[in-house]
Request: fold
Amino acid sequence: MQFRKRLLSREGSSEVKLYESLSELVDDTLCTRSANTHQHKISCLDRLCSECGVCKFSMLPGELDESDVQISWERYEYKNVKVKGDKMIRKLVLVRKSSSPAEMFQYLKTLLETFPAHQFRAYWQSKQMKSLVENLPIGHCVTVHDFSENYKCTEQNEIQSSYFQKLEVSLHVTILHRHSVLEYDGKDSTAEEPNIVTEQFL
Reply:
């Protein structure tokens, strides 16, 4: 929005907003939230509603400029990155771009197509997880398991036979939420006074 701020100071316009946050911008491209649920309709979030959409995002003439004027901005892209030896991995990296204002704002509009649904699902999952942990029945636990990466183990001065028999290691991370136990934690968790312990395992 820094670019829009500069344009507004030069041109001035009451037809477009200077957004304080991404959430505010997203809300402007969706129908009004339902009064009883305080959430947007799924059809709006998935961009299936005919009454809202990215078309509601108004732009200034300077933001649609396709001339030779170049502006500098950044975005995340997947790139092939070389690691240890000749191995290439695909990694999400921040890339600096130089383009016309129109190209930058067209990219923003592309992101706005899918971002509301992504943002809602991330929020909903976080809310459900918090609710599960806060209302965990005695004798139960909640785990989040994530596969991180495969690693090949190599020796510094390996013999030829080792070259063809690489040892592979998979890294798995588990986060465990459980009730505390007197013997291990010094306090028993009860239904009246729950005491949740969070542990991490590799």
